[in-house]
């Protein structure tokens, strides 16, 4: 399964996503499994393939208020037009996510699940939101 591919284990905690009950795959690219990443006191799921981020709606405002050094790990990836325009299903409940303007910055469109309220940020989008600030 891992023939010839060495995966650097950089995860801080155990690879368990509380409340998900299993591995969550990236809704936008073909990467298998999101990596649980700690930013400050908030845990988010990061895709190593496209740099996308999966988080709860309530976590986004808190993430935007993080110290830049804490948020650094999340500010990766570039906006890929292909991914940005792509519709995606919620990695948690499988429902098709809605394309909505971010409450923080109307210029940035994010994917949001109408069922669980989770938010998907494509690679680079968190960076743009962080630059725009929490309000
Ligand atoms: Zn991905
Ligand atoms: Zn959902």
Spell out the key features of this protein.
alpha+beta, 4 helices, 135 residues, 6 strands, single chain, binds zinc ion
Tell me, rounded to a whole number, the average pLDDT: 81
Distance between the termini: 45 Å
pLDDT < 50 stretches: 8-20
Question: Based on CA inertia axes, which overall geometry fits?
Answer: globular
When the domains are counted, the total is 1
Spatial order of the strands in the main sheet?
A: 1-2-3-6-5-4
Structural class: alpha+beta
How many E strands?
Answer: 6
Rounded to the nearest angstrom, the radius of gyration is 14 Å
Helix and strand pattern: EEEHHHEEEH
What compounds sit in this structure?
A: zinc ion
Percentage of residues in DSSP E strands: 15-25%
Give me the secondary-structure topology.
Layout: E1 35-39, E2 42-46, E3 53-56, H1 59-64, H2 68-71, H3 81-84, E4 98-101, E5 109-112, E6 118-121, H4 125-132
Antiparallel strand pairs: 1-2, 2-3, 3-6, 4-5, 5-6
